[in-house]
């Protein structure tokens, strides 16, 4: 597996962890544990930042001609995971604010 493919797989895994934290926060919110929900959202945001940094690095390498710019199914899958983790986190974070 090439280095960029390893980064893409890592991006998928991190995004999945982020989404799991966001939905765990939603469960805490349902149980009225707002403090824990906020902690989990913070963790989710940090994971999304990690995924974002991987994404930015991959895009930068492609723009500099260091990586093949061919879009692969794996990269599309990674983008899907990353975007849905961000959306889940944003929506659940807004729900926490409403409950407060």
From TrEMBL:
SUPFAM superfamilies: Enzyme IIa from lactose specific PTS, IIa-lac. This is PTS lactose/cellobiose transporter subunit IIA. The active site is at 77 (tele-phosphohistidine intermediate). Keywords: Magnesium, Metal-binding, Phosphotransferase system, Sugar transport, Transferase, Transport. It comes from the Bacteria. The modification Phosphohistidine is found at residue 77. GO terms for molecular function: metal ion binding; transferase activity. Its cofactor is Mg(2+). Gene3D superfamilies: Phosphotransferase system, lactose/cellobiose-type IIA subunit. It comes from Streptococcus cuniculi. Pfam families: PTS_IIA. InterPro entries: PTS_IIA_lac/cel (IPR003188), PTS_IIA_lac/cel_sf (IPR036542). Mg(2+) binds at residue 80. Binds 1 Mg(2+) ion per trimer. GO terms for biological process: phosphoenolpyruvate-dependent sugar phosphotransferase system.
